[in-house]
Amino acid sequence: MTDQDPHSPTTAGPEPTPTVGATQATFDEPAGSAAVGALPPGASAAVEERPELLVGAAFAGGIVAAMVLKRIFRRD
Fold it and tell me: Does any domain span residue 68?
C-alpha cells in the first residue's frame, strides 16, 4: 500500500472528446463541436463511412435496456 491518501482524487477515467478549436472552425465544423475522427480507437472504417450505423446501434441498445429494466422492475 502506498502512503497516498486513499480518498484523494485520481486521474482515472475516459479521455475527453477532442473538439474543434476556434482557429480550426469551418462552416461544416463550428467551434466547440466534436472533431472529425473522434471515434473510439476500436471503431471500424464502416462506422466512419456510415455514421447512421452507430446511431442505429445506440437506439437498439436503448430499446433493449428499456425492456430489461421494465422486466426487472415489473410489479405483479
Answer: yes
